[in-house]
Predict the structure of Succinyl-CoA--L-malate CoA-transferase beta subunit.
Amino acid sequence: MAALDHIRVLDLTRVLAGPWCAQTLADFGADVIKIERPGAGDDTRHWGPPYFRTPDGTATREAAYYLAANRNKRSVTVDIGTPEGQRIVSELAAECDVVIENYKVGQLKKYGLDYASLKAIRPDIIYCSITGFGQDGPYAARAGYDFIVQGLGGFMSITGEADGGLGGGPQKAGVAIADLMTGMYATTAVLTALAHRERTGEGQYIDMALLDVQVAMLANVGANFLASGEVPRRWGNAHANIVPYQSFEASDGWIIVAVGNDGQFRKFVQIGEREELAEDERFATNPARVRHRDTLVPILADMVRTRTRHQWIALLEDAGVPCGPINDLAEVFDNEQVVARGMRVEIDHSLGGAVSLVRNPIRMSATPPEARLAPPLLGEHTEHVLKNLLGYDDSALERLRAAAVI
């Protein structure tokens, strides 16, 4: 029995933040019905290459970006711009516990699919809206994009190489972290609302904003600023308060060395055959190393270049000095720990063969998440859902198809 197999979710989202939330709920057993535009679907279906390939090597129209956020769902195509489409989605909402949407503020009201309209149909509905800037405030009407939010929310001001250095300047993250973390916060909010409803019978409205989440994600850095009033600077892969605690280039690639105390520093330079550095008063203690980092780090960089990544990691791990490689994704999915934890999963796809996806990372003893269904083809479940959930017959479906409603 899956933890959420009694919950049905109507997914009116696209791209990443909303689909990520809905996929997480689906991983735990929720029946997620994804509503998509007939003939087009979620924007990310077309964000390729790469695309899923069948066993004979044929590229499909299923982009890897779309596959990443839509497993375990059922796809139903409905044109909500038509009155009949709006009626269908309203009928589906009446059969669902949760609605998740990421339309612009107020856009769904004109379709009768806003919270107030659906609450009138199902009073205990849980309705989660995801936008760039929230339902109120001076930016509410703006479209929200992860990249813009990373900049606006301060993340890029603390990410990237230091000003004045090689490649210095603000840098976004390599993945859409504001989208992904908003999806995760939204999941928490939905689960909390479900727990509240189980105790009280009361549904509720959830207002999630990418900018709010990005500001919250500043965590200790944000708290440091609020406590001190000092605007933090970028340190790249270095640490503001610990030296050496950064990346170094070995003879064949990059490694991370995270020296946490003076004893570990001594071991590090002994392995590098530069024992005298631990005796130098400029480098003997961490406060001294922080003050003289501009002198010390180039010396250490030259030292690290004398060995390979594998040699350094083996020697440092044996000595108890925290370290690790900077892997590319081929190395990540070949890593013995990643393999042992089963982070790559294969799911049979309706087009043939299996699609490779990343496993939900949550481990639970009684109700673990499960990758049951491959991301659906566009409209793959339209007929089944409308027949079995809403009672539509073949003639009704044919009429709706002819009118391009589904």
Remarks:
- The longest helix spans residues 177-200.
- The radius of gyration is 26 Å.
- The domain at 8-217+341-402 is CATH 3.40.50.10540 (Rossmann fold).
